[in-house]
Amino acid sequence: MRQVKANKILIIFLLILFIGCGNEVKKYEKTEFAFGTLIKIIIYEKDTKLAEKAANKAFEEIKRIDSNYNTKVENSLFYKLNNSKNKKIELDEEGKFLINKVLEVSKETDGMYDITVEPLLKLWGFYNKKNKLKVPTKEELKNTLKIVNYKNIIIEDNIIYLKNKKQTIDTGSFLKGYAIYKAREILKKEGIKSAFISALSSIELIGDKEGKKWKIGLQNPNNPSEILKILLIKDRAIGVSGDYQTYVEIDGKRYHHIISPKTGYPSDENKMLVIVSNNAFLSDMYSTALFSFNYKKIFDFISKYNNIEAFVVDKNNDIHISKGLKENIIEP
């Protein structure tokens, strides 16, 4: 039996609770398709024309980034890298910034964040739409792991190349978060003071909602239709990784898409990890990298940085909340 699924239920729900403060501030909402999913922008603003203009500009930016850098988009910069014979291309300034930041996080996490895992994702069937899926053999994993190593991504001036010509990269763990972070910056530049941007597992927030913190419902990873806890938050960003989001099903057993670059197997330490930081670009990368760590190691890692918090549901369904986040977690 084979089945490839992506959970259609949003990983995080926004609980829109109207706190009456007069009729001046209006809600403007717009949804568009990018990165293979629906992205929603909600703005609270007196001037609906301003809100519409700002949202349109934000979506233009999201689609620009998707088109220019997504490895799944033909003729994008990183698509060309993956498909070039010598695995060597010239980067523009933004592409160079993205790769340098990705490599920085890879080093910080001792290689637990590694965008060269694409061959492992292919091996497990996440790009397979036709053939019957099977669990990779130890030999297949061993051979594939040999070409997974972020240290083989080399940047010299404006040139990027992959030392191992069998390597490919995957932008899925960071580019969507980066895109909505840039969209947030555009909304702010346009004068928006209160907004919510959701791209499934990535969320950006501007300010608060009518004087109150935003209320974000955190899904129960064992039953995604239920809300486990509510996160009170403002002017921050969220990235979520979970074993229930995207997976393949082989002989009745699920194997999720967060593959350890060390073992080649789906990470089994946690069921869900929520990272709160100042931008979704970082939140997405850290939620992927730290998903393989136990909660103590996660908390030890984030303690080295300012303004990063974590909410963990481990493999035993125990909940662990970092110190700076505890007072902002309430019951649904």
TrEMBL record:
Details of cofactor binding: Magnesium. Can also use manganese.
Provenance organism: Hypnocyclicus thermotrophus
Classification of source organism: Bacteria, Fusobacteriati, Fusobacteriota, Fusobacteriia, Fusobacteriales
One GO location term (cellular component): plasma membrane
Function statement: Flavin transferase that catalyzes the transfer of the FMN moiety of FAD and its covalent binding to the hydroxyl group of a threonine residue in a target flavoprotein.
Catalytic reaction(s) noted: L-threonyl-[protein] + FAD = FMN-L-threonyl-[protein] + AMP + H(+)
Family: Belongs to the ApbE family.
Keyword Transmembrane helix annotated: no
GO MF annotations, alphabetized: metal ion binding; transferase activity
Superkingdom classification of source: Bacteria
Subcellular location(s) of the protein: Cell inner membrane
Alphabetical list of InterPro entries matching this protein: ApbE, ApbE-like_sf
Record-listed E.C. numbers: 2.7.1.180
Cofactor(s) this protein requires: Mg(2+); Mn(2+)
PROSITE patterns per record: PROKAR_LIPOPROTEIN
UniProt KW keywords: Cell inner membrane, Cell membrane, FAD, Flavoprotein, Lipoprotein, Magnesium, Membrane, Metal-binding, Transferase
Protein name listed in UniProt: FAD:protein FMN transferase
Residues that hold Mg(2+) according to the record: S173, D284, T288
Topology of the protein relative to the lipid bilayer: Lipid-anchor
Pfam families in UniProt: ApbE
